């Protein structure tokens, strides 16, 4: 930690208020106090932590700051700051406090993906109206610089697709299921024991967290407002050990993907598709090798080609790093008397319903082992204009001693509606005992990523 | 390409001058004219291409713009622009033109790594003096957003280490040598045939290009001015097929790495080490799987942990994407009446000489196959305080029918001076016929990356 301090001592400090002092807030407060000289040198003015709003005073904390900084009066605190850092999470009181901060002229830094995905426009509009910054790098993929590259570095390019693993908990679980053959229940238990998953794992396991991040990514990538409700969402609780094994037999691994891509409506108009679901990825795809609780995001742009960003997606220190990068940015803008680029929703592209989204399916069927079954099955696919890429047929002997067969079908790209209707129709065939597994397939098509 | 155009037609356009119309310049000009509506929406004002400075007029170009835009009078052109894009390359006239542009109040975007590494401070100081932006994302790792994340996203963190493959030509060659067993000469010929390597490949093969990029990365990462002369540089022309094979036998691959890390002087003061050299990387290291002419950079920071950025490192369109991102940034700043964060050299850390840099060696020795040789060899390492991690001994029969042995030694970390003196001393031993190969080893130590 070095600084020449030149010219910074005489400069008026910028006042920073911190809302929340959990895992991330603690690291933010620690860094602001411990590395104060560095921040002063990088901003050109000292950053002064003027208060930390908490729910209860007097709690034991692993943080060496003046106890007088703690307050339960967040409403007052935000009116006295130049920069407000919100790491409370959730919708309220986070939203009201941020709006109040902006009304009073403060720039806001937040890690609150749930709020941004649910009601981002309210915040963006407030920031624009009051001429202040609203930064939220930490809301997606923790420490990985991702939103700034999308918003600024690629501002002269056209982003075609964002494909990412942005939920560490589910990636940890799927990785364990893949590498050790664990069941979903066992993997969840282990993730909870290690603190990766919450006692109520719904937000992670059912894809809400990944969907909120997909909404934020799509909004920035396509200059279009996309909210949580626009995102098609499927979690991983239906992923079975049999699915994992079937993926391995195809040279694939199952990942929970957040996918945002430019698309077209049925009548050819520009649109976007935003979805979260588990999918098979071929092992040679770069996202396939993302292990444990790491995050990684592929970004494909017309000019830049395929880019990948990789790193820790959560944790106190990594998330604090992203928050603090934003604090420095907002502080520099205040020093320079302006604000950074805001949110640009000029494109206003429609979000395609999942039924119209083009995707590929892997379908496993338990069928009777007799001539003509494959033809019958293939006929159902053809009837719905779904083209088959590969079929594998394997003979098995059932518990009843009768020979049966397993058919594994991988389709070419088709609309999700056509694919799901096909699966429904297959279930009705006499020769089909059951549909043993359905999984989307990504990362193998002509779009490259 | 969509825009609502709202409020942008009445706004005064920002004038963009382009210096150079090669591969990158052509793509920049094409994008500015083809996607004008998008740029206007993202900037909040139209970007007007007012001229393209070229050496000769009347040349056939694959570019559909008004022929009147071309001029040979770059000196005049830069005085009429709000934003000057320099893609000529080389030291002069690029430097004089950029200085002139800044004197006249223009923001400058450049891809010129050679100039920045050779004489960056002259440009940084001019930008600060005239209160204008100087952006150069395209100078390192092509389209990969890397400088902005380092400069801005990680501004609240402390970067410990940057380890990257930033020269596509040499990565292509080393990849071919590794995957096909080609010699250096054959790999070079193939790279030239494919247009990856120049007729005079010195800048790539001898590491000048990678060293210039290392200087730029270290300057930004450590807030310290590092120039090309400060960078220890070794190219790949000495890398033999035998080295590649030896690396494979160790479960490694050879890559040309640009390495910037925080370090300590002998008396414990903070310092930085900046170097470019080929090194063995274990196959499970993420940079090991970077194939063909791709670039990838690891960044390790105290808070963020390990991040990786991956993508195309060169090419007209990817480089133009990075240039255009900078153009939008500079244009937004001009609209807002300010400039972005400048260069921060406040830390002024000394650059450690290579001799004092701590590294690890892989050494292959052809030795006599008799008792006591290993003890003799180990004694030389010990005499220079170099600790051995592993030794492998293999018996071979020479052309003369005499049994000899090959010793493969991997050391623990030691200063480069101690390691190179050790190798010199080994050469003098009677029992050592020759030092068959010496290669540094990276990515396996406790520092993690």
From TrEMBL, chains A, B:
This is Homoserine dehydrogenase. Residues 362-440 form the ACT domain. Gene3D superfamilies: 3.30.70.260, Dihydrodipicolinate Reductase, domain 2, NAD(P)-binding Rossmann-like Domain. SUPFAM superfamilies: ACT-like (SSF55021), Glyceraldehyde-3-phosphate dehydrogenase-like, C-terminal domain (SSF55347), NAD(P)-binding Rossmann-fold domains (SSF51735). CDD domains: ACT_HSDH-Hom. It is an enzyme of class 1 (oxidoreductase). Belongs to the homoserine dehydrogenase family. The keyword Cell membrane does not apply. Its cofactor is a metal cation.
């Amino acid at each position: 930690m070095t600084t020449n301090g030149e010219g910074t001592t005489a400069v008026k400090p910028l006042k920073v208020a911190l809302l929340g002092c959990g895992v991330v807030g603690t690291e933010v407060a620690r860094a602001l106090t411990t590395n104060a000289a560095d921040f002063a040198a990088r901003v050109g003015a000292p950053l002064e932590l003027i208060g930390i709003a908490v729910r209860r005073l007097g709690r034991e904390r692993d943080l060496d700051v003046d106890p007088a900084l703690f307050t339960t009066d967040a409403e007052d605190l935000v009116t006295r700051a130049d920069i407000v850092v919100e790491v409370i999470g959730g919708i309220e009181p986070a939203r009201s406090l941020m709006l109040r901060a902006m009304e009073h002229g403060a720039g806001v830094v937040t890690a609150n993906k749930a709020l941004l995905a649910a009601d981002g426009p309210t915040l963006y509009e407030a920031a624009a109206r009051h001429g202040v910054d609203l930064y939220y790098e930490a809301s997606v993929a923790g420490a990985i610089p991702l939103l700034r590259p999308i918003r600024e570095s690629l501002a002269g390019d056209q982003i075609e697709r964002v494909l990412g693993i942005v939920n560490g908990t589910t990636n940890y679980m799927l990785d364990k299921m893949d590498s050790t053959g664990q069941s979903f229940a066992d993997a969840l238990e282990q993730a909870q024991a290690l603190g990766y998953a919450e006692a109520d794992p719904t937000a992670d396991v059912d894809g809400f967290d990944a969907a909120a991040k997909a909404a934020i990514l799509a909004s920035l990538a396509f200059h279009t407002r996309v909210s949580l409700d626009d995102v098609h969402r499927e979690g991983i609780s239906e992923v079975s050990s049999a699915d994992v094994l079937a993926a391995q037999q195809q040279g694939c691994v199952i990942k929970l993907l957040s996918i945002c891509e430019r698309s077209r409506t049925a009548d050819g108009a520009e649109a976007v598709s935003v979805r979260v679901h588990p999918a098979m990825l071929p092992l040679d795809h770069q996202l396939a090798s993302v292990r444990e609780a790491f995050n990684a995001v592929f970004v494909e742009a017309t000019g830049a080609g395929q880019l990948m960003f990789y790193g820790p997606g959560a944790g106190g220190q990594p998330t604090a790093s992203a928050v603090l990068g934003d604090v420095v940015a907002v502080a520099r803008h205040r020093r320079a008397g302006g604000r950074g680029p805001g949110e640009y929703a000029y494109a206003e592209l429609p979000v395609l319903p999942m039924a119209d989204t083009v995707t590929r399916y892997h379908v496993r069927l338990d069928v009777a082992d007799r001539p003509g079954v494959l033809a019958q099955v293939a006929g159902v696919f053809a009837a719905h204009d779904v083209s088959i890429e590969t079929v594998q047929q394997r003979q098995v002997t059932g518990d009843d001693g009768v020979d049966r067969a397993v058919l594994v079908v991988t389709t070419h790209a088709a609309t999700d509606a056509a694919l799901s209707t096909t699966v429904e129709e297959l279930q009705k065939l006499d020769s089909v005992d059951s549909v043993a597994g359905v999984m989307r397939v990504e990362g193998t098509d002509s779009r490259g990523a």
